[in-house]
Structure formats: structure tokens, C-alpha cells
Fold this protein.
Amino acid sequence: MEVDDCESVSEAKGQTLKKKIDVLEAMAKYNLKKQQERELSMRPATKQQNIPKGTPEKLLTKVEQEHVKFARKESDVGISEYVSKGAGFSAILKQRYSDFQVHEIDMNGTVIHLTDQSIVDYVSPPPSVDLAEQHNLLTAEQWKNIEDMVNNGDPKQVEIDVTEKSKEERQNIHKILRTKYEDEDVTSNSAPVDGKTIMKIFKMEGRKERRRNKQRRMGSIYTQFVLYKENQTTMEAVNTIARILRVKSACFMTAGTKDKRAITSQLVTVKYVEPLKLFDSVKSNKKVAVGNFAFTEKPLQLGNLKGNRFVIVLRNVLGDESQILANLESLKEIGFINYYGPQRFGTRHVPTHFIGKQLILGRWQEAINLILEPPVADGLFQREYDLLLARIEYKSSKDAHKAFGKIRKSHHTIEAQLLLNLKKHGKDLVGALNTIPRNMRLTYIHAYQSFLWNTVVSKRLSTFGPKPIVGDLVYAPGSIDDDVDPEMEIENETPVEAKTDQPNEKDGDDEKSNKKAQRNQRKVIFIDENNIHNYTINDVLLPLPGFDITYPANEVAKWYTELLRADGLSEMDFKQSTKTYNLGGAYRLVMSKPSDVKWKFARYDDPTLSLIPSDWDRLQKTQLPLADVKDGVYLGLILEFSLPASSYATMALREITKMDMSSEFQTSLNEAGSTKHPAPAATSETAVKEPEVKRIKLEPDENKKSAAPAAASETAANQFEVKRIKMEPDSNQDSVAPAASESSENPGLKKIKQEPGVTSDENV
């Protein structure tokens, strides 16, 4: 190679390195600017809000500030402390929804994945009585008549007098008939006729009757399957399947709901629905898939999970190498404060704990007013403009008739159902609130408990530090049961919105059912001077307040009383005559320690490509574009860890980054991290002065920290096999349809919908 050529190559490399440094500096400045802008946005707004044409101005400009907080801070919900006191680093969460993947962990400790879509048929278990004994139960002539009916259709029905037979013998005959003639749609029943018990045996005719016979043969057997979804809530996915199959959504049982802006896999059970029908219901759906079919005698119940396995990508990572690694080690060895994340308190304009407080106080009208509070009229809500007008009308006139009359399309929403009931039964406020699904009503009051818990745990740690003190609560020795979640959480990392597609469930508003939903079965004891050395901060509990709970025997108990008194409440207000809103209380660990923590770094140039494969990618075994490149401009951190069902992954990420994990702030950062052409405009000062940004060496295995930086980079590039089935568009662009050539090459291949860009807070 000529000398000039060598110089040209060297100059090109230098320019590339300089451009990367410029990008890193520009990103650092951008993130700092965004954080500063966010702090300014927290100040009370004085600017007049946008008002839609024909809207009474006073209704939108005089909304109480505590009810309308669009730039909600973590401190607004009691989140303020960290376990480790070191510096954090800058990163973007959920730049793409495929960057956040959640896999349920079932009660056996198995991590749920969609791995197989084979269709299986239900096979009845053998009867308790041997078929060889059949002639002892029925005569030879009776069996001959049954055979003639099955084979020749004559007679149409066989009737046998079983008056002298015991109940057990009759049950055995039914079982034998179902097993022997399983493929012939033969059924039987017994009924009194003229003082005798007659068993009628016949073949089911017609499709509907055969289906009923199959359901009867399955008895109490449930179909279990893995639900895989992309960028949808669990209820949205379930409602889609239920609508196509024409069954009620309430028939589908899950252990909990999963994130919307994510890729998730979880178990679902449903009765009387065959695997083939489930598969066909979503075979053309681009966001939902089902598989791993099985049969079980027990349906899933809320809380029937040990936790969730998270695979998360943090993009545009900027910070000190040693500090990032120290924070990761701290997360692995110590854990994080077990805060309820901001999404626990809703993503809409009225925080859910505000509504919950009014429900506990028994102020039904105030709770209704908050649920129907009109939001700021901006583009975000224009798709439900009729609902906005209905809210404004109700706030102005308190006339449910007029308000409901403005609704044209949003009849499925909570607000519409609430207004409809108020229209029909204006004075029955409790009855109107009961039109809201019970789980949603409980979400409101649980959010208030969560707010109090967050506030107390922050003060506990800031006052006494991350260590046990005399009077703290811990579980009594021998009372810990890993299969019991004391809080019976119904969600994990799932935003609560003001509307839902959830069906109106049967309330079952009895004290027993609600106490079961929140009652800690474990015994607790106090830490004293004799046993304090046996415990760490990871053992300490704080109570979720209720009418039947034990509080710490120290200063912390007084803080609960003061907080409740400030809201006009006491402990006994959690026990009401309206038993839906009874709260016995529960206990929650102050700290949460993730298990099986792993991490690796990856560099990339194209932010529209995924850095981690999904279950669907692995199932299709398709060669995917490689996003990870050795000298990529951007740096990503890929984290894997498992958490209990009641812990929030965003709070774990908050601990290591020391950044606000609210959806609003993370959405704002996406503007800087979504360009495919990593060359932000650099000033002349930037081009001359080298920024103080420390490069991070790539380490595919955290245990190999002694490797040289160059070797580590090569290892990461070679070992990190990340391939995707789809090209994901830029976050600032609309979704692009799959190439026609792909469909023509394999028309039977199901395409998962390409990932849309981040356009609003609702998608985060």
C-alpha cells in the first residue's frame, strides 16, 4: 500500500473517531439540557392552556393543579432515595418497545417462553374402573343395543333402568361410555322417570350438540397456553381473542397483567376453548401469538406466579466506566429500594391515589368528580374528543344526562359507563362506582396505600439509613413461604389508565373476598437488641396501612399516623360499610434483590435495529440483521434479571442510573437517540476541544473483568448473537410495511408488526 493511501486510511479513521466523540458530547449536553428543561417544567404553569373551539374557558384554566400534572416527578409519589450513593449514568429506556422484554415465572420457577405452536388434543384420563369389568355393570344385551346404536343408528337411544345401582356405579358407567366411545360423540345422562332412575344413552347430533358433548367430556379441564404479545396490554390481547371466539373476556384467567410497551410472554387458562381455535384466532394478528398448549385442572388466579424475568436494553449509555460497573455490582449484591414505580399511580392526568383517597374517605361524589375530571385539551386526547366534551359538561353542570349525550364513540370507557349509571340512578353513587370493574376500583385504593408506603420508606431510609433498627418488623422464623405473595399483586410494571377494555366483572363485594385479596398469611416479629445482629436491611418490612396490621415499634409508626391524619384518615377508616373498599393491610419488604443478574455491553450505529431477539424470532429461526457492531457510535447496556411479582424493574434501573424512570422523561430522551445518522451538529469548540467522556470497554461476561479492552471488544462483537426478524423503523418515522418480497417468498410466515415510533407518553 502506498504511503498516501496509508495516510488517507489513517485520516479517515481519525475522522470517524472524532465524529463519535462529537456524538457522545452532543448526547451528554442534550441529556443535561433535557433534565434542566424538565426541572423548569415542574414550576406552576402560568401560560394559558389550549382550548378547543366551543369549550368554556374557565373549565380548562381553573383546574386544580394537584389534579392535573402532566410532568409528574418521582418525588410526587414518594420516590426520592437510593441505596448506593455513587454517581449514576445517562441512558434511555424503552427507546423501542422491543428493548423491554418480560417473561413470566410460574409457580414451579419455570421462565415462560413461546417455543412451540403444535396443536394438541385433549385425551380423557382412564376411568377409575377397569374396562374389563364393563360386563359386570351392564348386561350383554344392553351392551349389544349400545353397539347397534353407535354403529347403525338403530335404536336412536338406549334406555337402561339403573334404579338398583349405586351412585358410584352409575358414575362408572358414564365414564366408561365416554372413554369407550370418545370419537363417536356418545353421551349419557340419568333422570327419574315414573319413580325409577333411567339412564339414557345416545349420539349427539349437530355441531352445537357435539361441541357441548366435548365440553362435558372435558369437565373441569382448562386449556393452558402461552400468550405472546407486542406493544399491547394483556387485556387488549385477551379481548382480541375473546371477540373473535365470541366468548367473554372474563373466561380468560391470568396470574397478572404485563407491560404494554414491551414484548411479553405469560400463561393464560381458559375453559371450553380448544387449542386449534385459539391458534386460529390470532394466526393473522401481527402483535399477538399463542402456543405451548396444555391442559390443566386448575385455572390461573391473580398472583399465581413467582415473578418475572426481564431482558432490557438501555441505549445511548454515557458515563464513567468504573461507576457503571460498580452500580451493576451493587444491584446484584445489595438490590434496590422496593418502591412502587410511577406507573402504579397512573399515566393519565389524575393520579389514581387521589381517587383512592376519596374512596377510602367515603366521599363518593368527590371520587366521581376526579374520575370525570377533564384533561388538558391537547392533541393527545383528540381521538376521544367526545369523551373530553362529556367530561367538561359534567364538570360544568353536574348533569349526567347532558354529559352522556355528548358521547358518540367512547361508550366502552369507564367514564361512559359511569355517566350512564348516573343518568339512570342519579342518587346511587356507590352503585354508579360499582359499574367500574372491581379490579380497577381496588387499583385506586391500593395506589393510595402504595403512596403512603413510598413516602414512609423514603423517610425511613433518609433518617436511619439502609440498616435495621430496634423496633423494625421482620418475618417470624419459619413463616416464610416462597409460594405466597403477601400482597397478591395483580400487576407488574403495568401502567394504570383512566379507561380500560376490561369487562364489567361480577363484584362479589363481600368482606371475605377482599380480605383474601390483601391479607398477609405470614407472622411478623419485632427486631430487638437481642436479635438485631441476625438481620439486614433486606429482611426489614414496612406495612401497607390497613385496619388489621402491625406497625413498627419505633418512630416509623408515628409517621403513618401523621400522614393519615393529614388526609383526614385513621387506621379504622380502612374498614368501611361498603366492603369493596375494606383494606386489611399487608407487608412489603423495604428492599428487593434481583436474582440471576447478567449484563453485557454492545455498540451499534442503527437505533432502528433491535439488540435482543424475541421469542418469536427464536421460534421462526430466521437469519436476522446484526445490530451489534464493534466500533458502533452508540453504546447499549443489556441487562437480564428476575424479580418477585410485586417488584418494579424500572425501580431497579433507577437505582443504577440515578435517573428519572418516568415515561414522560424517558420519552423526551428518545428525540436524541433515534437517528440512524449519528452526526449531531458540532460547534467549532466541540471540534477542537476533546470532551471528558470516558469510553467503556465491552465485556460480554461480567466475570471476565481482567480482559484487555481491545480483547473484550472483539469478544462482545463475536459472541453476542443478536438477530431480528424485522427491520424496525426510526422512532420519529411511521411504521413501514414489510417488503412484498418477504411475503411472496414465504406467504405462510406470520409477520410481527413493525415497531412504531414513540409519539406520545401513552406508548411508554
Observations:
- Residues 3-41 form the longest helix (39 residues).
